[in-house]
Amino acid sequence: MLVSLVRTDEEPLPPAGGRLRGFLFDENTPRRLTFSPGLPVCHSKDLGDSPSDTEIWNYARREELVIVSKDADFSNRIMLSNPPPWIVRLRFGNMRKKAFHGCLEKAWPSIESLLPAHKLINVFESRIEGIQS
């Protein structure tokens, strides 16, 4: 497991775009996946009860993790913070759990192929967009 103490202040870190150590799924994503990503996975709930977006952000930066979220806050914040962690924003709306897992599993090989060269990856039901670092 990738859990460590979380600081709430922004820490100076090496720029994103280097080594990826895993994925941090946000609270609005499933805790358990029906497929196995190529790197370790942890969930925001592993950081404690209701960690703030800042705590999730700083933890991901420090631990070199990709934040996977449906929340627009992370993809908006990536444009203002340097260096940012990597962000995968799931933009395929509300759907049943089985359909959600199916979309994510189908898109996952493409998502991993775009990392770490893309700091933001937007995943739609019908396409994937990557924004380079």
Overall residue-averaged pLDDT value = 83
- Rounded to an integer in angstroms, the radius of gyration calculated over CA atoms is 14 Å
**How many beta-strand runs?**
6
What's the helical proportion of residues?
A: 25-40%
Backbone shape: globular
| Strand-residue proportion | 15-25%
Order of secondary-structure elements: EEHEHEHEE
Query: Count the helices. How many?
Result: 3
Please indicate the count of domains.
1
**How would a crystallographer describe the biggest sheet?**
6 strands, mixed
Derived structural class: alpha/beta
Sheet with the most strands: spatial strand order: 2-1-3-4-5-6
Q: Give the terminus-to-terminus CA distance.
A: 27 Å
- Point out poorly predicted stretches: 1-17
What does this structure look like?
The protein has one domain. 26% of the residues lie in helices and 21% in strands. It contains three helices and six strands. The protein has a six-stranded mixed beta sheet with strand order 2-1-3-4-5-6, with helices on both faces.
What's the quick description here?
The chain has 133 residues and is α/β, with parallel strands linked by helices. 26% of the residues lie in helices and 21% in strands. The termini are far apart.
List the SSEs and their pairings:
Elements: E1 22-25, E2 41-43, H1 53-63, E3 65-69, H2 72-77, E4 86-90, H3 97-114, E5 118-123, E6 128-132
Q: Which features characterize this protein?
A:
133 residues; alpha/beta; 26% helix; disordered N terminus; six-stranded mixed sheet
